[in-house]
Amino acid sequence: MAKLPGAKPRIGLLGTGPWAARTHAPALAGHRGVEFSGVWGRRPEAAEALAAASGTRAYDDVDALFAASDAVALALPPDVQAPLAVRAAEAGCHVLLDKPVATTVAGAREVAEAVEKAGVASVVFCTLRFAEATARWIEERTAAGGWFLGEAHWLGSLYGPGSTSAYAASPWRREKGGLWDVGPHVLSVYLPVLGDVTAITAVPGPADTHHLVLRHSSGASSTATLTLSAPPEAAEVSLALYGTGGRAELPRWGGAVEAFGTAVDALITAARTGEPHPCDARFGLRLTEILTEAERLAAQSAADKA
């Protein structure tokens, strides 16, 4: 049974990596409307350190953290996140998930079904849906309508020459690349504005680069070039829409901690009202379905050319 959040909901954190330490923990520790109930990690010493730095306690038993929390935020590799999210939902905890929810359709579906069966609220932290500038832009573009084309370049240099990013050590990012790491960001913008994806073309480029052409339920089409391996000099993040209102470019955004705080608020609202958030576990499942098909088509294209 889903827990009913009180005046100050208790929210725990699963994960101790750079994303958890730089975004999730500071947001939870600094949020005046919640009690940061504790930290669990696969490395107990890292959980102890992060908990001490955040003014909360570490747990070596994840089920004990579930028992001490009304909700949990997860900052873990996707295929570690998914089964733990299922366990959290079964324990009655509302779940604030990271993207992608999982890198298999089966894993993401298990999360969505567990959330629905338990009656808990869920939110997937797609940053652009919660950062103030981009969230407002997406809402306004969705209301305006009339778009026939989207064009996105997300050229990250995580694996470019000279990169010292802490995220480069992430095994799942190294294996799955930009398609799975930054692809959810682009889709999280395209789907509410242009509609669900109804057809996909995908081909591989250099290193982990993927080129996508998408058809949407509105009749619009969109493109996306995604990579984590661009040279630093060529790094770029841009997304533009073209339609009856002219050209609209996604604004710059900042403040991941602030955006995560907004996602926390969204989860609490969904838990209290029972109204699903548009960016919930079911939406996370849809992202995984689209990315899985794009990955399959790109691999098939590469095999056909071999």
Question: What keyword list fits this structure?
Answer:
six-stranded mixed β-sheet, 306 residues, six-stranded parallel β-sheet, alpha/beta
Explain briefly what this protein structure is.
The chain is of the alpha/beta class and 306 residues long.
Architecture overview:
It is a single chain. It is built from 10 helices and 12 strands. A hairpin with a 4-residue loop joins β9 and β10. It is 44% helix and 23% strand. The N and C termini lie far apart (52 Å). The longest helix is centred in the last third of the chain and has 25 residues, at 281-305. The chain is globular, with a radius of gyration of 19 Å. It is of the alpha/beta class. The protein has a 6-stranded parallel beta sheet with strand order 3-2-1-4-5-6, sandwiched between helices. The chain has helices spanning 18-30, 44-54, 62-67, 78-90, 105-118, 132-144, 171-181, 183-194, 256-273, 281-305, and strands at 10-14, 35-40, 58-59, 71-74, 94-98, 122-125, 147-155, 197-204, 210-216, 221-227, 236-243, 246-249. α5 (105-118) packs antiparallel against α10. The model has no long low-confidence stretch (mean pLDDT 96).
